[in-house]
């Protein structure tokens, strides 16, 4: 795992403490994890936490981490999701090397285990409907009752199960259930379904199978098949751990009776050859990620996309990894965020401001600076020579000379931000006003001498004079000005579209909707603002899509990965404002 990002210095979380104990006691002589997403949607920031944890553990212990696509439901899965998952994991900086697997790689293996369980008397075919199975299961306070099909003979169960496999039964006509205990205190263990019929085309196996294993059955078997030692998942799978253990323990128990393999002795030899069935994996749960002001439910994210509330899975307002990438977040900032929030045993909610803080911290160091005017106001410098063009060399980063510099042209007509002028400025407004002198960044001091308005009284143009002795933005006589403005030369500026993104929801917890409302009722109508009259310095004309930078005094931005065309239509997305609300929160907490 030497090509993975370096581990940050930190104390060990409870999972790493467990691993240390296992290695010390000799329970395992290696560490092997996996990241097992279902390819039925795009990964979100919660998955990023799991990716960083699983790949990070493998890195820290010189172990391995697999990427496994748990594709056991052909109705909801697609190669589009597979490709996006792989892209997201690689973008975050992790590498599964040659260990990309699919649950569908193991369909024959799952089937053989299911037949073994039938021969052991640990599984049976049930013809109860889904509603009847639910009714028979009982409640948290009342035990379930046995299905009338529970005591079928081994031979009859095998015959019907093979008919299921061969396409002889319809969807929903029957299922294969594990025979555990209908009175178990853990409802998950009340004879759970482990196989169902689905006459559906699979994105990898086509129509080769018409029965598919349930996730809880396939997941633990996949782990053991791949030699995983520590199966790490989120807290909602806590109750399912008992089923995880039951499946693997039952299989290992069956391996001790060779007579069960008389029809398939090769399968026993196969099981014995796999280290994952000698020292089987165990499951451990950590708290899932919850962030203020967003939703991470896959169902809700799909609804946002399908109903057109956002502009696709990679909409920069979405909490998907591809959405963060398009917005301009860096993999380093996401990894830093995941490291800061840590790995806990109980659920909690993290402030979205911390995520923004992480990207600001990262971009503050790496983002080059440029000039761009979002809402232009025309300024004519009356005493500036007609036709003259000055060129100013400006650093790309004020604290990092290695980034170099660029040349910014200056001419008689420039544009400044409309918000940087007030006709009647209050006392603490240090920008431009009638009779006021300000600094144009790296250029000259200018003084406003006249204000031009249209017939509606709207300010449309300013007339100014400049002091040629202040070239570079500093006066030789030592006089000081309090205001420094950014600007662009009208003659050289490039038009651009700038998209300002804010929180998608207006409340901290859109999941907790009031009675009669849904999370959709809290969508922020001002979550996306498109500015179409922006002007930017010419150095941005050839910027490549996905490039991060800072518009001075405005915020961090990136060139849009979809719509930005170098040399053509320039489209920039705001990643974050310059103001750090997390720093303010920390100060209040401290």
Can you walk through the features of this model?
The chain is of the alpha/beta class and 590 residues long. The protein has three domains: 14-286, 3-Layer(aba) Sandwich (Rossmann fold), CATH 3.40.50; 295-364 and 494-590, Ribosomal Protein L25, Chain P; 372-486, Ribosomal Protein L25, Chain P (Beta Barrel), CATH 2.40.240. 27% of the residues lie in helices and 22% in strands. A hairpin with a 3-residue loop joins β25 (548-551) and β26. It is elongated.
**CATH class group of the largest domain:** Alpha Beta
pLDDT under 50 segments (min length 5)?
Answer: none
CATH superfamily of the largest domain: HUPs
CATH architecture of the largest domain: 3-Layer(aba) Sandwich
The fraction of residues assigned to DSSP E strands is 15-25%
User: Termini distance?
Assistant: 39 Å
Shape designation:
elongated
Number of domains: 3
Number of strands: 27
Query: What strand line-up does the widest sheet have?
Result: 12-25-26-27-23-24-13
Helix fraction, binned, reads 25-40%
Q: Structural class of the secondary structure composition?
A: alpha/beta
Q: What is the CA-atom radius of gyration, in angstroms?
A: 31 Å
The CATH topology of the largest domain is Rossmann fold
């Amino acid at each position: 795992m030497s090509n993975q990002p370096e581990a940050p210095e930190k104390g060990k979380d409870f999972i790493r403490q467990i691993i240390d104990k296992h290695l010390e006691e000799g329970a395992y002589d290696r560490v092997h994890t996996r990241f097992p997403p279902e390819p039925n949607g795009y990964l979100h920031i919660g998955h990023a936490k799991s990716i960083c944890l699983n790949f990070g553990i493998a890195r820290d212990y010189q172990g391995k981490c697999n990427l496994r696509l748990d594709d056991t439901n052909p109705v909801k899965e697609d190669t589009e999701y597979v490709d996006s998952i792989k892209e997201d994991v690689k973008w975050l900086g992790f590498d599964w090397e040659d260990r990309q697997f699919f649950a569908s790689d193991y369909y024959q293996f799952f089937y053989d285990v299911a037949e073994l369980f039938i021969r052991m008397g640990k599984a049976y075919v049930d013809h109860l409907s889904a509603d009847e199975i639910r009714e028979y299961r009982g409640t948290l306070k009342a035990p379930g009752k046995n299905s009338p099909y529970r005591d079928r003979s081994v031979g009859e169960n095998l015959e019907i199960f093979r008919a299921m496999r061969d396409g002889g039964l319809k969807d929903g006509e029957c299922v294969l259930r594990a025979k555990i205990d209908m009175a178990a205190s853990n409802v998950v263990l009340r004879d759970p379904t482990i196989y169902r019929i689905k006459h559906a085309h699979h994105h990898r196996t086509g129509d080769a199978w018409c029965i598919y294993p349930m996730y809880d059955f396939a997941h633990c078997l996949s782990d053991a098949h791949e030699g995983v030692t520590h199966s790490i998942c989120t807290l909602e799978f806590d109750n399912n751990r008992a089923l995880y253990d039951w499946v693997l323990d039952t299989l290992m128990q069956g391996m001790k009776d060779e007579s069960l393999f008389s029809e398939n002795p090769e399968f026993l030899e196969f099981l014995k050859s796999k280290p994952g069935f000698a020292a089987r994996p165990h499951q451990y749960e950590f708290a899932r990620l919850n962030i203020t002001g967003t939703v991470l439910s896959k169902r809700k994210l799909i609804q946002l996309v399908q109903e057109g509330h956002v502009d696709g899975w990679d909409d920069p307002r979405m909490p998907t990894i591809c959405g963060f990438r398009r917005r301009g977040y860096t993999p380093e900032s996401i990894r830093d965020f995941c490291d800061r929030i840590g790995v806990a045993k109980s659920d909690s909610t993290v402030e979205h401001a911390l995520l923004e803080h992480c990207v600001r911290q990262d971009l503050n160091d790496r983002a080059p600076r440029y000039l761009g005017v979002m809402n232009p106001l025309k300024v004519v410098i009356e005493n500036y020579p007609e036709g003259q063009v000055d060129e100013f060399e400006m650093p790309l980063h004020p604290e990092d000379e290695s980034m170099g510099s660029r040349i910014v042209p200056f001419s008689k007509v420039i544009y400044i931000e409309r918000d940087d002028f007030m006709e009647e400025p209050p006392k603490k407004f240090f920008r431009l006003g009638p009779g006021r002198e300000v600094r144009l960044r790296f250029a000259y001091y200018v003084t406003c001498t006249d204000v031009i308005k249209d017939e509606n009284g709207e300010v449309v143009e300013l007339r100014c004079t400049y002091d040629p002795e202040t070239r570079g933005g500093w006066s030789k006589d030592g006089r000081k000005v309090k205001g420094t403005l950014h600007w662009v030369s009208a003659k050289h500026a490039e038009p651009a579209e700038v998209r300002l993104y804010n929180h998608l929801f207006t409340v901290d917890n859109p999941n907790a909707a009031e009675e009669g409302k849904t999370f959709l009722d809290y969508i922020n109508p001002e979550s996306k603002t498109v500015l179409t009259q922006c002007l930017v310095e010419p150095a941005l004309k050839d910027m490549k899509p996905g490039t991060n930078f800072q518009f001075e005094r405005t915020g961090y931005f990136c060139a849009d990965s979809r719509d930005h065309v170098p040399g053509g239509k320039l489209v920039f997305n705001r990643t974050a404002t310059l103001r750090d609300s997390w720093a303010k929160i920390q100060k209040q907490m401290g």
